[in-house]
Design goal:
Elements: H1 3-24, E1 57-64, E2 67-73, E3 85-91, E4 98-105, E5 119-128, E6 133-141, E7 151-157, E8 165-170, H2 183-189, H3 203-211, H4 213-217, E9 228-232, E10 238-244, E11 249-255, E12 262-269, E13 276-283, E14 286-292, E15 303-307, E16 315-317, E17 321-322, E18 333-340, E19 348-355, E20 365-374, E21 377-381
Parallel strand pairs: 17-21
Antiparallel strand pairs: 1-2, 2-3, 3-4, 5-6, 6-7, 7-8, 9-10, 10-11, 11-12, 13-14, 14-15, 15-16, 18-19, 19-20, 20-21
Length: 390
């Protein structure tokens, strides 16, 4: 045989042998079989079934049947802009997760609302019992416009893991006033003129913001919608909770029966209080909401609010966190509260937060901690390790 042919044949055989070895390697990191996760360890790498760190940041969890679905932002190595979209993971025990792939993909179509490189944050999914559709909402900033768009986006799917079809994006409740704006409030609104408040953060400016300065400014185009979550109440009514008015005021907006639009009915929480990252749950008839201040990617002290009605009034409480770094929410920022077995007597709640790594976004970590109650109020104690205990 020609020596050149023999050399080529030998190379092909070597390649084939290496392929056989590679194919038969067990899954997991560095060829090691992936061990089952037996406890929650906040702040550590959390591997999926393939040994890869879960990539679902700023997310939320939906239970459908016996399976939990975790949706979150897919983060890249060096940018937090959306290069892939929303990822989905599934689990039966909230510990061991399998990667279901991309639930909502960004597109390469130029000028599209979710064009690759846009900012797509805090996706949440709820299931509509009537339409049998899975409805995804998220904070959206158009590509190349920084945080100026301040929109929400909506997508829908027939299966929890998707694929989700993008429907539209826009600002919130254009042409609508908050439900608490009666004759007295509207009389004040008539006196507010942005030209009179060019110097920000003064007492007069903050008072004007609380009275509705930005609500009036954005009345025609729609209210700003940034950090957000979704909540489905006991009666099946759903709500979109989001940071608005330049992140200075939270809004709670009622959704239509199909969960795909606002009804136009909304209220404001903590006007001029500068809150974002809302996470809401209901316990024994009381609504609780955990938020954060607005300090960019840097962590800060958590805030907490409660109300006997979703429409308020809402009362602020001290920071619910306890333990090391409690004053900076353990180094993280709230994103969601997951209710497990949500019944009046057996409910358990998991506080979910993100430890952001803006210089290496894909390495952002997760905080999952149980919510306990002391003197009737939620508290979150740091635990290095804990078991969910179904």
């Amino acid at each position: 045989m020609d020596p050149k042919i023999m050399k080529h044949t030998k190379s092909l055989v070597n390649i084939a042998l290496w392929l056989m070895v590679f194919i038969t390697l067990p899954t997991g990191v560095c060829g090691q079989e992936q061990k089952k996760v037996s406890a929650i360890r906040s702040g550590e790498l959390w591997p999926d079934e393939n040994g890869q760190h879960i990539n679902a940041h700023g997310g939320g969890v939906l239970k459908y049947g016996d399976t939990y679905f975790w949706f979150g932002e897919h983060k890249a190595e060096h940018t937090s802009n959306a290069l892939v979209g929303v990822t989905c993971y599934a689990s039966e025990d909230l510990l061991n997760w399998r990667n279901c792939g991309v639930a909502l993909s960004v597109t390469d179509e130029r000028g599209h609302d979710i064009e690759r490189g846009c900012i797509l944050e805090r996706p949440k999914v709820i299931y509509n019992q009537v339409t049998k559709k899975f409805c995804m909402w998220f904070h959206l900033e158009l590509k190349g416009r920084g945080y100026n768009a301040a929109r929400f986006g909506v997508a829908v799917a027939d299966c929890p893991e998707g694929p989700y079809k993008f429907l539209y994006s826009q600002r919130a409740n254009a042409g609508m006033w908050p439900i608490e704006f009666g004759e007295q409030e509207m009389a004040v609104i008539d006196t507010l003129d942005g030209a009179n408040y060019k110097e920000e953060w003064t007492p007069a400016w903050l008072k004007a913001v609380a009275q509705g300065l930005f609500v009036k400014r954005d009345f025609g185009t729609g209210q700003m919608s940034r950090d957000m979550t979704l909540f489905v109440d006991d009666d099946g009514k759903a709500y979109h909770i989001f940071s608005s008015e330049e992140n200075l005021t939270l809004h709670i907006a009622e959704l239509t029966d199909d969960y795909l639009h606002h009804t136009g009915r909304y209220t404001r929480i903590a006007p001029a209080g500068h809150n974002e990252a809302p996470a809401i749950f209901k316990h024994e008839g009381t609504y609780w909401m955990i938020t954060s201040g607005c300090t960019g990617w840097a962590p800060n002290e958590a805030r907490m609010f409660s109300a006997s009605s979703i429409w308020g009034p809402w009362t602020q409480h001290p920071n619910p966190c306890r333990g090391p770094k409690a004053e900076i929410t353990f180094g993280g920022q709230s994103t969601f509260v997951l209710a497990i077995d949500p019944s009046p007597l057996t409910s358990k709640y998991i506080f979910m937060a993100d430890i952001w790594r803006p210089r290496h976004p894909i390495d952002a970590r997760y905080i999952w901690l149980p919510i306990e109650f002391e003197d009737g109020k939620p508290v979150i104690h740091w635990r290095d390790e804990w078991e969910i205990g179904f």
